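To fix ideas, we reproduce below one chain and its tokenised fold.
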Amino acid sequence: MSESGPPSRPMKYPYTFSAKIAQFPLKHYFQNQWIWRYYFIALAVCTPIFYSISRLANSPENKAKWAEIKRKEREEHHN
């Protein structure tokens, strides 16, 4: 391998996909776009809410309640 280090200047046009990824200014986007900050804030706020909703929706009592509702609907449909 070469010990000369990274190239001193970027290509005029990055022809390969990996060259395009390497030259993409990701740090600039992380620092200057609002969506990245709010995405992680929203993820932290919504995760416990979604977890509690999922836990309540998948509880055995709720499953039994919905099974009873579906059974009554089938009885009404066939009678």
Notes: The chain has a mean pLDDT of 87.
